[in-house]
Structures are given as C-alpha cells and as structure tokens.
Sequence to fold (316 residues):
Amino acid sequence: MAGKTETGAETETVAVIGAGGIMGLPIARNIARAGFPVRAWNRTRSKAEPLAADGVHIAGTPAEAARGAGIVITMLSDADAVTATMGGPGGALSVMPGPNAEPGGDRTDDPHGPHHALWVQMSTIGEPATKRCAELANGRGVGFVDAPVLGTRQPAEAGQLVILESGPEEARGRIRPIFDAIGSKTIRVGEAGAGTRLKLVANNWVLAVVAAGAETIALAQGLGLDPGLFFGAIEGGGLDMPYLRMKGKAMTERNFEPAFPLRLAAKDADLVRAAARDRGLDLPVADAIADRLAAGAKEHGDLDLAATYLTSAPDR
Ligand SMILES: NC(=O)c1ccc[n+]([C@@H]2O[C@H](COP(=O)([O-])OP(=O)(O)OC[C@H]3O[C@@H](n4cnc5c(N)ncnc54)[C@H](OP(=O)(O)O)[C@@H]3O)[C@@H](O)[C@H]2O)c1
Fold:
C-alpha cells in the first residue's frame, strides 16, 4: 500500500475514482505529478486515458483501481454514482483492507492506521449520503474522510482547490501530502459530515451570486442598458467581485463552456434546499434558486452554471 520515493519518504498509492471528470482528471494528474503512484478509474474510460502520459495506471473497474491503494478518492457527480462505485460486491470498498477485510491482509484494529485503506470522499453529495458513505466505510473497517472542495476547473488544474476536510484526526498525517498536491488550502472543519455542511453553505453563496448576477444582467439588457455600465458602476467598490465578473463575462459573451456544469449546480441547490428543510430553516431565496437552476438544467444541463442566464435573457 505504501512505497518509498527517491528521497526515501513514504508514499501512498492513491486511487482516483471518477478520474475523467472536470475535477477528477486534474486531481489525479496533480497527485501523480507530486510523485504518488496513481491508479485511476472512470466510467467512460477514454476520458481518463490522457492520464497515462503522467504514469497513471488506468483501471478497468473501481475495484481494480482500489486494489493495493492506501487512499481511495471519489470525485463523482452525485451520491448515486458514489455509492454505486464504492458499495456492492464489485465496488472499490470490497478490496480495501480494514479490520473487517478478508483474512490475510496486514491488519490492526485502528481503521485509520497505516495498514488500512482510507476513503476520501470529495464529491458534493449532501448530508444523508455522506452519512451513508461513512456507514459503508465503517462496515468495512475502512477510515472515512469527508472532504468536498471549493474551486472549479481552473483551480483544480492549478492545484489551487480549497479542501474542506472533516474526519478522524488520526487520518490527517496520511492525507496532508495528497491535499497539498491538489489544493492551496485545507480547512479542518471537524468530524465527517462537517465538511459537507460547510460545502453546502459555500455553494449557497456561489449559486446566489450567479443567479442574482444572471438576473441583474438580464435586467440591465431589458432596460436598454449595456451590462458593462453596471460593472463599471461597481468597479473597485465593496460590491465588486472577480467571480461575478467571470460569470458575467460568460453570460454577456454567451460562452458557456462548462467549468461547473449547470446540472451539477442544480443538484447542489437541491442539496442546500434539502438540508435547510431538514433543519426547519426558512430560506425562500435558496428555494427559488433551486427551482430556477432545475428549469435551466432541463435545457442546458451540460453547459456551465452561467447558462442559468439563458432562462432570464430578454432575447433568448
Ligand atoms: N466542476 C466544479 O466546478 C465543481 C467544483 C466543486 C465540486 N464539484 C463537485 O465535484 C463532483 C464532480 O464534478 P465534475 O465537475 O468533475 O463533474 P463531471 O465532469 O460531470 O464528472 C462526473 C464524474 O462522475 C462520473 N459518473 C457520473 N455518473 C456515474 C455513475 N452512475 N457511475 C460511475 N461514474 C459516474 C462521470 O463519469 P463519465 O465520465 O463516464 O460520465 C465523471 O467521472 C460533483 O459532485 C460536483 O458537484 C464540482
């Protein structure tokens, strides 16, 4: 499970499940480029194949990718994709060593110790699914780290993600070098589940900015104004925001190459709504945004989140 680098440091073999996605591919590549042996799996194999140029082993099944890996990362669209690839007889968990693994492995009672595999779940899947994943991992005796990320295609490619780490303290030393390879910052949030809750909070903000930005640009255009006048008016002040400018540019230029697909943004808005409902919170704006993104995703789900603008654009 662990080997040595040329400098003699211990390295973990890392499996990346979902290694052909917008996020999974650069994550796998950056881990490989940091010197870790990487084993990758993607449902559509061809999307992960470019990783072979970085020495990544492309596996035929999730279990083949996970076999022999000390750390298994999931970076998949949603909860169903995560549980389908990890659970079940052919899933990655079935080959990950833990105290409840098949006899013959190198085992101790500590599921976060060096001889056990760790599952690092980085997809955005919400609270109930994260709990289910933790239970799946516990059932197997595998350590579980809930670590969703902030950042999109470009920060993922640049190794500049912000990682919202939650899970056992004992796992931290093992995963820190991996997080250093893919992120600019790791925020320790608490026990597994807390990272996912913080991700929902951050996404609520991101989705609100884009939804309100889309309507603001549509309003300017509908009132016969160049949206550039709006951006000029807020420039350099407290209301200015690089993210709004980036998404606003995509809207005015109608360039919706996906960095964060609208279908996934709609999924995340639903996760926010479900979490708020579970806590009895009254968040009507989040509710309206979820409806709006769901409507847009029906037509433009594979375009970037900024394409929510098309639902409001005066000349659509
Ligand atoms: N993009 C962003 O800006 C961003 C930022 C932060 C967090 N996230 C979150 O990160 C996760 C991945 O996002 P992404 O942008 O990388 O999405 P993506 O490009 O659409 O990739 C999704 C991945 O999930 C796989 N997949 C989907 N359904 C599957 C199934 N039933 N069984 C097995 N594999 C399945 C896809 O395989 P195929 O290639 O075969 O379709 C692909 O590998 C999502 O939870 C997303 O919400 C995204």
Observations:
- The chain has two domains: 2-190, 198-312.
